[in-house]
Each structure stands twice: as structure tokens, then as C-alpha cells.
Give the backbone structure.
Amino acid sequence: MNWDAIGAIGDFLGAIGVIVSLVYLAIQIRADTRAKRSSAVHAQVEAFRGFLQTLATEGELSSIYFRGINDFSSLKDVERVRFSSALGHLFRVLEEAYFFQEEGNLDPKFWYGFETSIKEILAYRGVQDWWSTRSHWYNEPFRKFVQTIMAERTSPKMYGEKVNA
């Protein structure tokens, strides 16, 4: 066997090593991407649960929230601050979920829950009035998404309201 043949075998084995390394790297990157997506979704779900937990356990805020979603203008100074802070938190969570979904990083099963929540909360006049004072805080694609939902004009039904037939 001559040196050219040995060199060719070495080149061939080196190329196989590079290919195996690239395949391994691709598998690792894919697993890391999945883990990051899962972590992001978990954080979104936890933030949403936190909002619901706060409403469930803080009676005064629950009262302000319920009055505010129905009639934003009826809230007094401190009530308006608490309501706006609560909705601001909720809509940041929803905006982030929206962008995760747009980027393909949110499983459609999870997006369904977020989207349904967005549609139902936006059916309330008080939320729409609040949105008109705060929409400029949010990114344009999310604002357009919210405006589209608000244009559908659905009836509030999250809390057992009677829907007019």
C-alpha cells in the first residue's frame, strides 16, 4: 500500500468523523431547542396561573377586577391603578404567548387556551375601554391581533352572564 492510499483512507475517515460530529451536534441543538421551548411555555402557563391565583385569593382585587371588566370608568383612583396593573400583567403574559405562537414555539394545544382567554376577556366593555388607554404599550402585531378580536363583538360569558339569543 502506498502513501497516497493511506492518505485517502485518512481523509475518508476524517470526513466520516466530521459527519458524525455534525449529526451529533444537530441532535443536541434540537434537544436544547425543545427544552427551551418547553421552559418558555411552562413560564407562560405559570404566569397565567399566577394571575388567576391572585384573583382567586385577593378578594378586594377580585371585586375591583369584576367591576372594572364591566365598567372601567366606574373605578376610582386606586382601584383603577390596581385594575390596570392586573390587566397589564395579564396582557403582557398574553402578548408573550402570542409571539411564542407566531414564532412556532408554542404548541397549538397551549395556544388554544391562551387565544380563548384573550377572546373571552376582550368581550367585556371595561376591558375594551382599558385597552384603549394602554394599547400603545404593546407591540403592533399584538395590537392588531387584539383589534381583530375586538371587532368580532362577542358577548361576555366568562362568568356565567346570560347571552342574548
